[in-house]
Design goal:
mainly alpha, Four Helix Bundle (Hemerythrin (Met), subunit A), 5 domains, two-stranded antiparallel sheet, 4 strands, 74% helix, globular, Vinculin/catenin, CTNNAL1
């Protein structure tokens, strides 16, 4: 809106219609500022330490908004009534100054609000740490139950605050790290309860103490990692050095090689040679691994040797082309570039095959959890020798899984998935056998099994081992999903998919929604809905293909399209009994969020329609209105109550059907927008300036974000109205 005001054409005369349109834009700016400032003032009243700064910024923003409204007010302009054309602004600098002040003050409000959110998270973390210290020191069950109840409430608050923050993060790497840390806290909260109870029941048992200390240590590390992400800091001023994967190394190397087509002088041959050496050094993780098959090892070594030869040939032709740019030499250079890139693609395919086939075999082999079952049986029998024997087998399993994660990281395909692989590797390390890290013990399964073997009649020790075994099984299940995502990325079916990891689960996590009974689909129901799910899967692939065509991946239309595709893919996985959506209630909640994202896309399409030529606008507006209508229907369906198994399945079917219809429309909308964008760029070099807003657009815009909605985003609204994303065992 401000851009529309500043960029208006400076003609000496304007019609009443145009002048009134600009007046409406000025009023819309003032109204929007008023709503924004209302939220800022509410935040200021609840945070006294920043109240003065926030209040000053809010006053400046309100004053600037009012100034803009006054400067665009028709009644304040002095003009002869008989003249059909009137002067718009005698001096445009007033609006420019007001706009600068407004943007400056709004930015200040946002920065202050962000500081408050960060402080809330840090304060919440400090409360959790203080209560953890009390839990470590308790000596009676009664005192433990009392303090753990308080600890549970504090963890719920912390989970809510960090979940909101995770969703707000723009950096996908930080988002993945935050999801990993919060997953550790969720699992460790359950472990902390049983490990502490076991230690209280058996205070003289060394293995029980080691078990409990490991859980507390792991939780403290995870809490610190969350704060590092939130405050964007590293301990002792260290810089985060993410390990380079083979996938990213090959991608960068190929970009440099292909760049020679445009510029023969933008890098040196030494740079290319060094890049290849780094990639080949990383392939040693595969060739040196005891778990890589002989066939894969031989192929990787052969391709590494071929890559060196292809680069030598490329450098030779490249150096000649720098001295003498003949047609024959340029053709030879093109051939050398193609052969080098083809060799690197084959190497990438080979290491991907080596990593994923190993992972698939291992996960399939360990799917029966025989070692865990044996540990439980021998523990209950009190057979320490057998426990020691299965401890060795679990150690071997852990080494295999850690190596699997290390190799998968090289072929993960995206930075978020790479971070997830690193987190999985750490998780197997700390939930596996006893490991001494510096002077601290990690959380591990073995100490829980040893404790049960020493106290075979202890129900608490048995429960504790069950919880640790469940954590191990859960991690293996997560690895199966991760492997599937890595394969999907490699085969081009999916892009950055880990966007909605903090999905709330109403039926499972909110005490106020106990009446809801979330259920899973049985095998027969999955079979009925499989065809619909497959159609949804194909549509997500089509949408991903369309979004990849856009040069500007930050475009709002692309962002919303990718988000909708990600959620639709999760719903497809649900039809197969896989993925993050575990119950029908999860699916319904995801459908609501999907519909909301679709409505946001429709708003972006409306804004885009103001920038295209008048001939193209009606079709785009019509499609946007159709999208709004379909999203509203989906929201109504998702929110409708369903009692009984048959009604619930009918609702699931309807939600997926309506989601499929929205995705079908999205597949038509994206190429249309892409075509219009290219058409405008080709015709004008840029999109035409946005015309003055119409009255109905102002009404739509002013209702899009109410003060209550903004307050909720900043965590002012009571936590009782939110759904937490953390599971807790009952303290009793």
């Amino acid at each position: 809106q401000i851009t529309t005001l500043i960029n208006h054409k400076d003609k000496p005369k304007r019609s009443d219609k145009t002048l009134q349109a600009i007046q409406r834009v000025g009023q819309a700016v003032n109204l929007a500022v008023g709503r924004f400032v209302t939220v800022g003032e509410a935040i200021a009243n609840e945070n006294h330490e920043l109240k003065e700064e926030m209040s000053v910024a809010c006053i400046e923003a309100r004053r600037a908004g009012e100034t803009i409204a006054q400067l665009t007010d028709v009644a304040s302009l002095d003009h002869p009534e008989s003249d059909s054309h009137i002067t718009i602004f005698t001096d445009k600098t007033g609006v420019v100054k007001a706009a600068r002040l407004l943007l400056s003050s709004v930015t200040k409000v946002l920065v202050l609000a962000d500081r408050i959110v960060i402080k809330q998270i840090i304060t919440s973390r400090n409360k959790v740490l203080a209560t953890m210290e009390q839990l470590e020191k308790v000596s009676s069950f009664q005192e433990f139950v009392q303090i753990f109840s308080q600890f549970g409430n504090e963890m719920v608050e912390f989970a809510h605050l960090t979940g909101d923050r995770q969703n707000d993060l723009k950096d996908e790497k930080k988002k993945a790290r935050m999801a990993a840390s919060r997953a550790v806290l969720e699992k460790c909260t359950m472990m902390l309860l049983t490990a502490s109870k076991t230690c209280l029941r058996h205070p003289d048992c060394e293995s029980a103490r080691i078990n409990k200390d490991g859980v507390f240590h792991r939780m403290r590390l995870a809490l610190e990692q969350v704060i590092e992400i939130v405050t964007d800091s590293r301990p002792n001023g260290e810089n985060e050095m993410a390990p380079i994967s083979i996938y990213s190394g090959i991608k960068e190397f190929k970009n440099k090689v292909e760049g020679l087509r445009e510029n023969l002088y933008f890098l040196s041959k030494e740079n290319l040679s060094t890049m290849l050496e780094v990639i080949l050094e990383h392939t040693e993780d595969f060739t040196d691994s005891a778990y890589t098959s002989h066939e894969h090892r031989e192929h990787i070594l052969e391709l590494s040797k071929q890559a060196k030869m292809e680069l030598e040939q490329l450098v030779s032709v490249w150096m000649q082309a720098q001295n003498q740019k003949t047609k024959d030499l340029m053709e030879d250079l093109e051939v050398a570039i193609l052969k080098t890139c083809q060799c690197m693609n084959e190497l990438k395919r080979e290491v991907h095959s080596a990593a994923t086939s190993l992972a698939a075999d291992l996960l399939k082999y360990h799917t029966d959890h025989m070692v865990l079952k044996a540990l439980k049986i021998t523990g209950v029998e009190g057979n320490l020798e057998a426990v020691a024997e299965y401890t060795c087998k679990l150690s071997e399993q852990k080494e295999q899984l850690v190596e699997m994660c290390r190799l998968l990281r090289h072929v993960s395909g995206t930075e978020p998935l790479e971070i997830t692989c690193i987190h999985a590797e750490d998780t197997f390390q700390v939930t596996g056998p006893q490991v001494l890290t510096n002077t601290l013990f990690s959380v591990h399964l073995i100490s829980a099994a040893e404790t049960l073997a020493l106290h075979p009649s202890s129900k608490i020790a048995k429960e504790n081992l069950e919880v640790f075994c469940e954590a191990w099984e859960s991690q293996l299940s997560d690895m199966s999903l991760l492997l599937r995502e890595i394969n999907d990325v490699f085969e081009g079916r999916r892009g950055e998919k880990r966007v909605y990891l903090s999905l709330p689960r109403p039926g499972k996590h909110n005490a106020n929604l106990k009446a809801l009974k979330p259920v899973k689909l049985d095998t027969e129901e999955q079979a009925k809905i499989a065809k619909l799910g497959l159609e949804l899967h194909l549509l997500t692939s089509d949408v991903d293909s369309e979004t990849e065509k856009w040069e500007d991946q930050e475009n709002e239309i692309v962002q919303h399209g990718q988000g909708m595709s990600s959620m639709a893919y999760s719903m497809y996985l649900f039809t197969r009994g896989e993925g993050l959506l575990k119950t029908t209630q999860d699916l319904f909640h995801q459908a609501e969020i999907f519909a909301t994202e679709g409505t946001k896309l429709a708003s972006a399409l409306h804004a885009f329609s103001d920038q295209v030529h008048e001939d193209d606008k009606p079709l785009l507006v019509l499609e946007a209105e159709k999208l709004i209508s379909m999203c509203k229907q989906l929201q109504v369906t998702a929110k409708a109550s369903a009692q009984g198994k048959s009604a619930t399945f009918t609702k699931v079917d309807a939600c997926i059907l309506k989601t499929r219809n929205v995705m079908t429309l999205l597949c038509q909308l994206l190429p249309l927008c892409f075509k219009l964008l290219r058409k405008n760029k080709a015709g004008n070099g840029c999109l035409k300036p946005a015309p003055p807003w119409k009255e109905d657009r102002i009404r739509t815009g002013t209702n899009a974000h109410t003060p209550e909605r903004r307050v909720e985003t900043f965590g002012i609204k009571s936590l009782e109205n939110h759904v937490t994303n953390m599971t807790f065992l009952e303290s009793k």
